[in-house]
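Q: What structure does this chain adopt?
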Amino acid sequence: MKWKKVYETGIKKVDDDHKVLVQLTDELEAAMEPGASREAMGATLKALVGYVKFHFNNEEEVMKKIGFPDLQRHRQLHKDLVNDVAGILIDLKNGKEWTKSELIGFLTRWLEDHILGEDQKIGQFLGSI
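A:
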């Protein structure tokens, strides 16, 4: 996944976090190359999950501060992703294999859909007040 200008929400703190998430997704993809250790993949995925939680907290604080009207639904979307990724980590610990295309595809689709669909609404709301 590569950063695209279209992902920008106009909120620097949120956009900077999104850039880190894109970078971590790229690092995870590299950690899943043939010959890479399963431990490297697990550590990178764990770092990604940690940063996702950090980012979601930042983003929710921004929404709270500006009085974003859809905060609760947006917060639930965040919780759902954290639960999905936690399930993936459990799968991996239990020996279930996720292919690179499955895992990176899932994360990339989620990030793109969320940034372009949901997070853009935050920037639009901020621009309207």
